[in-house]
Specification:
Elements lengths: L1 H11 L3 H7 L8 H13 L6 H9 L15 H16 L5 H16 L6
Length: 116
């Protein structure tokens, strides 16, 4: 999945600013986010762990990280899973559901890295 490839490249190159720009949540985003949402809805239903498996396969943790480079870590993958669930399940016309989904994302963002 190209979307995850971009995320992986930002992490490996430690481009946190680019990653934060890439992980958007509002409704007025480029079409690729709406395409992502559609792909997630059709290919990754809420039940099962296929989404988690996809993320773990596309964002493997690196053992030997060169100086100045980064690697995905389990807590980061948990966040990306929540982020993808957000895009799969979001309904911008349902304010209560939108608030719930955003709250779940914010919980993971505000936790210290070792707690995720």
């Amino acid at each position: 999945m190209e979307f995850l490839s971009n995320i992986r490249s930002f992490v490996l190159e430690t481009k946190g600013d680019e990653l934060s720009k890439w992980l958007q949540v509002e409704p007025n985003v480029p079409e690729q986010y709406h395409q992502l949402a559609q792909e997630l809805k059709t290919s990754f239903p809420p039940q099962g762990d296929s989404l988690e498996n996809l993320i773990d396969n596309c964002l493997p943790e690196e053992d030997n990280v060169p100086e100045g480079k980064g690697s995905p870590w389990p807590g980061f993958n948990s966040f990306i899973k929540e982020y993808f669930q957000y895009w799969r399940d979001v309904d911008f016309n349902n304010v209560i559901k939108l608030h719930t989904l955003l709250s779940e994302l914010l919980k993971l963002v505000s936790l210290p890295p070792h707690a995720i």
